[in-house]
Design a protein that fits this description.
alpha+beta
Length: 178
Amino acid sequence: MKNFLIAGLLSLASLVACASSGSSVRTVDFVDLTQYVGTWYEIEKFPNSFQKGCLATKAEYSLRRDGKVNVVNTCKKTKGDNVAKAIASVADKKTNSKLKVSFVPFFNRFGLFAGDYWILDLASDYSYVLVGSPTREFLWILSRTPELDANIIESLKAVARREGFDVERMVVTPTWKN
């Protein structure tokens, strides 16, 4: 019984630690979604399974009448492009900096099976952005242009590092070419 109680307390402590580590990731104070929508090019990212084989990636966001955001991600592959459509819902209406993105059509309307899309840093002119997840599992540097100045990339990585992301995991995305 004593071992069961200790194991239970350790499990609870690890759950609390995981929850608190995710919640400590800071986002920007406010995002004007009308300025945020448009085309974004991926510059660097944490490798992930759903972008496997992508040579270059871009995302196009547009506002919907219901306040949600349409998402169209295009992944260039050697044998054509893959397009994935999703809907993003604002999870923090005070800041608009925390979104939930769902690529499962039926569940989009319910917000189920949605991933976290947190805006961690954003240029004042909305020309580049650092996006991550509170679990620190996902991280992207995006730009309005297919290329981004190395000094800006390093400053975004410094923000990510400060928020506890292992930026050594980041990989450079090849430049998008039409």
